[in-house]
Amino acid sequence: MTRVCFELQIAPDLVDEYVARHSPVHPEMLAEIAASGRRNYSLFLGEGGRLIGYYETDDDAAAQAYLAASPVAARWEAEMSRFFVGLDGRPDQAATPLTEVFHLADQIARTQPS
């Protein structure tokens, strides 16, 4: 399993509308996210429109490719693209990935005898 964390910046004046658009997300888009193989997907909103996303997947490249080819995801991302600052391309394909530097379960596992 791969854990993926990413960062995006929402235009501060559009934060309330962005949150409203996710309450709830269209059922068709939820189904596409699940069908892509992404699970345990969360978005966290920080001050000034800083958005952190997290999901788990068995094959991130396959999940990305699935969503890139999905007409449902293309429509959703086209609608959502206006919310983001400094983004070149579709939000789901152009988010800045973050590097994992600590994971509790991995470190505990390393301390256990094999």
Automatic annotation (TrEMBL):
SUPFAM superfamilies: Dimeric alpha+beta barrel
Positions in coiled-coil regions: none
Protein's recorded name: L-rhamnose mutarotase
GO terms for MF: racemase and epimerase activity, acting on carbohydrates and derivatives
GO BP annotations listed: rhamnose catabolic process
Gene3D superfamilies referenced in this protein's UniProt entry, alphabetically: 3.30.70.100
The organism's place on the tree of life at top rank: Bacteria
